[in-house]
Specification:
single chain; 253 residues; alpha/beta; Rossmann fold; 4-stranded antiparallel beta sheet; 8 helices; 38% helix; binds adenosine-5'-diphosphate; binds magnesium ion; transmembrane transporter activity; MacB-like_ATP-bd; nucleotide-binding
Length: 253
C-alpha cells in the first residue's frame, strides 16, 4: 500500500473576520489517490480556496493534518515548507499569474530558477510542446490569448515534476473553447499519472475529473465518482439553494 498523494484529516481553519471568527473549514477529511484528478465544488464561501491553500502548504490550518505523499506538512518549519512548495507542488491560478516581462519559456523556467536550478531548454521545449505551444516559447503573455497563457501556466506548474498540481478556478477567466482546451490538457496529464486537485464552480469542468467532492459551509457533504456534468449541476443547485436559505435566515435574525 502506498500513501495517497494527499491525505487530509480533521482539517479546521478559522479566520479572524471583522464580524468575529469565521470557520472556513470545520473538520474536512479527504484522500486523493496518486494519479487521480479530483475536483472540489461548493457554493461561494464554502471553503474551497481555503482547503486548496491548506492542502498546498500555502496556509497553516488551525487544526488537523495534511500529508503530501506521507510528509506531514505541520511538521515542517516555514523554510522547509517553502522548499516543499517549490519542489513538490505546482499551482495554477485563475488569472494565470504569468510575469508580463518574461517570455513563455522564461515563465516556465522560473520555478527552477527560484529553486536555484538552471533551466533545461530541452525540458522547456518538451513542456511547450505538451501544452500545444511549441511555436510560442518566445512570446510574452501579452502576445498570447487567455487560453494560451493558461497553458503556459500549466507548463510552469509542471516544470519541477510536482507530486500534485493544484488549480483554483483554472478556467474561470477563459471563454468556453479555451476552457475546454485547458481541461482536456489537465485530463491528459492525469491520464499520464499526474495528480491534480482543481477547484471549480463549473459542472462541465468538474466532469473532466475522476471524482468531485462537494463542500458546504466548511464540510465535505457529498462525493461523486466519474461525475457527469448534469449530475454535478443538480447536486450544486441543491447546495447553492440551501446555502442561500441559510444566509437569508442569518440576515433575517
Ligand atoms: N483571509 C481571510 N480572512 C477572513 N475570512 C476569510 C479569509 N479567507 C476566507 N475567509 C472566509 O472563509 C470562508 C471560506 O472562504 P473561501 O475558502 O475563499 O471560500 P470559496 O473559495 O469556497 O468561495 C468565507 O466565509 C470567507 O469569507
Ligand atoms: Mg474561492
Amino acid at each position: 500500500m502506498t500513501a495517497p498523494a494527499i491525505r487530509i484529516r480533521r482539517l479546521r481553519c478559522r479566520f479572524d473576520g471583522e464580524g468575529g471568527p469565521v470557520d472556513a473549514l470545520r473538520g474536512v477529511d479527504l484522500d486523493v489517490p496518486r494519479g487521480a484528478f479530483a475536483a472540489i465544488m461548493g457554493p461561494s464561501g464554502s471553503g474551497k480556496t481555503t482547503l486548496l491553500h491548506c492542502a498546498a502548504g500555502l496556509r497553516t490550518p488551525t487544526e488537523g493534518t495534511v500529508e503530501l505523499d506521507g510528509t506531514d506538512l505541520s511538521a515542517l518549519d516555514e523554510p522547509r515548507l517553502a522548499e516543499l512548495r517549490r519542489q513538490r507542488i505546482g499551482f495554477v491560478f485563475q488569472q494565470f499569474n504569468l510575469l508580463p516581462a518574461l517570455t513563455a519559456e522564461e515563465n516556465i523556467e522560473l520555478p527552477l530558477r527560484l529553486d536555484g536550478r538552471g533551466p533545461d531548454s530541452q525540458r522547456t521545449a518538451a513542456l511547450l510542446a505538451q501544452v500545444g505551444l511549441a511555436q510560442r516559447g518566445g512570446h510574452r503573455p501579452g502576445q498570447l490569448s487567455g487560453g494560451q497563457q493558461q497553458r503556459v501556466a500549466v507548463a510552469r506548474a509542471l516544470v519541477t515534476d510536482p507530486e500534485v498540481v493544484f488549480a483554483d478556478e483554472p478556467t474561470g477567466a477563459l471563454d468556453i473553447r479555451s476552457a475546454r482546451e485547458v481541461l482536456g490538457l489537465l485530463r491528459h496529464l492525469a491520464d499520464r499519472g499526474q495528480t491534480i486537485v482543481m477547484v471549480t464552480h463549473d459542472p462541465v469542468a468538474a466532469s473532466y475529473a475522476d471524482a468531485v467532492l462537494f463542500l458546504a459551509d466548511g464540510l465535505v457533504v457529498d462525493q461523486l465518482a466519474s461525475p457527469a456534468a448534469a449530475a454535478v449541476a443538480n447536486r450544486m443547485a441543491v447546495l447553492v439553494e440551501s446555502a442561500e436559505r441559510a444566509a437569508n435566515a442569518v440576515g433575517a435574525r
